């Protein structure tokens, strides 16, 4: 039996020749390309080894391709607004997307929108599932990282607002990336932020295990499968390797590149946007705003391959190639359904179920319905006002962030 093939899956913001390219990791040979749209950062996901999903940059839909569709026709999953980040559960049952400050969770088999979570105060920037699909994590521009139990979210009483299992608020600037290790509910989670720190957490207890301070903002973070090393991509193009098993262990420490230059990968000319490690931990893949994807030998810190793209790299990850990528006659087990944009029973214009309205309405009933129409209009006006206030708040937050993170002259 042949060994599993590792592939690199990459997207850039230009998408002149293709939306997504798949190439063999070690030879660099192109295997597949997918066309149609521009995938946004943290917006690429593999669904059940059968479909490739890409949240379109600044648009309110997700593109979906069958992995071996010859005619390359994409399906469009329409969403209530532009998708800022996207992930799928490893068991292939759920799709989760960040839309503004809300988190939308769909069931793949039916396309039903199961729940909308509203616990972030700014745009959601990244989403990750645990390996057993029991939990997912969300990071936002509001500096918060939330841990959600999928079971609790789906079984919550409709009269109650779903609550996260953990709220991690120790970061002081927007969250840029998340990485979830192995172990399901016992996994460790790495969070990166513009506040120049990377923090390591434990899902089971919610405790902070480690906090590392760097000289630059951290834009991407990942770990090898054994979780011996953590790799952190900086806003200056450097990639830092942190040894998690080094002693003595301190909960808070600073990374000093001048004291340990053998732990820094140098080659990118602009900020690193994404990182991924091979299964055996020997190779690191990085993408950058300098429009290149680089493959590094972890032990020597040398770049062994550079692939030039047509725009800033938005996604780059190493995957074990699913059967659908390698078999030309592969077809998905089930077609994707139409994904609903509204919760069940909450579509605009739907009347309450359970009894319904009488077929003939008296004057009093007509007055009641008129009052309901006025209430509906008033609610719409208030929702518009809330959206405007959120936009003003978001603009003020972005302005403050730019001032705080502006390099000193």
TrEMBL record:
Subunit structure: Component of the 5FMC complex, at least composed of PELP1, LAS1L, TEX10, WDR18 and SENP3; the complex interacts with methylated CHTOP and ZNF148. Interacts with NOL9. Component of the PELP1 complex, composed of at least PELP1, TEX10 and WDR18. The complex interacts with pre-60S ribosome particles.
UniProt entry tagged with the keyword Membrane: no
Predominant subcellular localization, coarse grouping: other
Recorded family membership: Belongs to the WD repeat IPI3/WDR18 family.
Superkingdom: Eukaryota
A GO CC term assigned to this protein in UniProt: rixosome complex
Domain WD repeat-containing protein 18 C-terminal residue range list: 365-407
Organism of provenance: Sciurus vulgaris (Eurasian red squirrel)
Described purpose of this protein according to its UniProt entry: Functions as a component of the Five Friends of Methylated CHTOP (5FMC) complex; the 5FMC complex is recruited to ZNF148 by methylated CHTOP, leading to desumoylation of ZNF148 and subsequent transactivation of ZNF148 target genes. Component of the PELP1 complex involved in the nucleolar steps of 28S rRNA maturation and the subsequent nucleoplasmic transit of the pre-60S ribosomal subunit. May play a role during development.
Gene Ontology BP annotations: DNA-templated DNA replication; rRNA processing
WD repeats, residue ranges: 117-150, 189-211, 265-306
SUPFAM superfamilies: WD40 repeat-like
SMART domains found in the cross-reference section: WD40
Protein localization: Dynein axonemal particle; Nucleus, Nucleolus; Nucleus, Nucleoplasm; Cytoplasm
Name of this chain's protein: WD repeat-containing protein 18
Record key words, sorted: Cytoplasm, Developmental protein, Nucleus, Repeat, rRNA processing, WD repeat
Pfam families xref list: WD40, WDR18_C
Cited InterPro entries: WD40/YVTN_repeat-like_dom_sf, WD40_PAC1, WD40_repeat_CS, WD40_repeat_dom_sf, WD40_rpt, WDR18/Ipi3/RID3, WDR18_C
Keyword match Repeat: yes
